[in-house]
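Subject: KpsF/GutQ family sugar-phosphate isomerase structure
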Amino acid sequence: MSSIIERAREVLGIEADAVLKLRDKIGASFEQAVEMILSCKGRVIITGMGKPGIIGRKISATLASTGTPSLVMHAADAIHGDLGMVTKDDIVIVISNSGKTEEITRLLPIIKKIGARLIAMTGDTNSPLSEHSDCVLDCSVEAEACPFNMAPTASTTAALALGDALAVVLLERRGFRLEDYAFYHPGGALGRQLLRVSDVMRTGARNPIVSEDALVREALMATSHARAGAAVIVDETERLVGIFTDGDLRRSIEKDPELLSKPVKNYMTRSPLAITPDKLVAEAVRLIKTQRKKDLPVVDEHGKPVGFVDEQDLLGM
């Protein structure tokens, strides 16, 4: 094994060990932090200097996207006016491995004077930061992965993991739902999958619906006019009873070349897989992939077709 590979694995081992050892440090103070944030009437403001500040940006983003209003305050900018964003209703989470960074210690008495509560994420539970804080989360590590034990590596990984633990516990305690997550993620591939089926389904003239007594020829015409890959078949009560796809046509025409002038109910796929409009697009994608279907009727609570989605509609989602 080359020295490069060996050293890379060693670094990953150091950082993984730092995260795993946090498990034994999760206790009453973590519960206190969760309860403080849940009862907070303002926002969770996260600050730090250097690499811990960058980790704070990620933690803040995760909190904000999972139901906990949060923003970032750069420690250096804070002492030059940005402290004005802090109110007495806020909680300030300060990330500092040493707990002694000058820009951080200068902030502490002012934050306390404002009336905001402080949560420390630090590697030194006896530091000035810890002494000023209402709650201290110990994220200390035995050593950095850096050969000089200087560059923040294991310590920032540990802080990031602790922030994720905090965010996940908070979202569960808040009863944060997938629907809520979708609301805060409207863009990109993730946002598209978190749309509702009703947002993307074909309706009206683009939703080919024909009676089970209609001729195959009529079903094909409806499919062609809708530019769809299948026709949705309904009974006399307008409830879904089948679907007639390109596959059904190919399989049937070999056996019966005269099928065009016969009822489509003789050749359709009965009791097809369907979905309701309130489901997430991600669920429609999953059904199409796992069930190997190209076409998916959308039905209401009475089993009546209200829309249609196919493989092309969901392509790339």
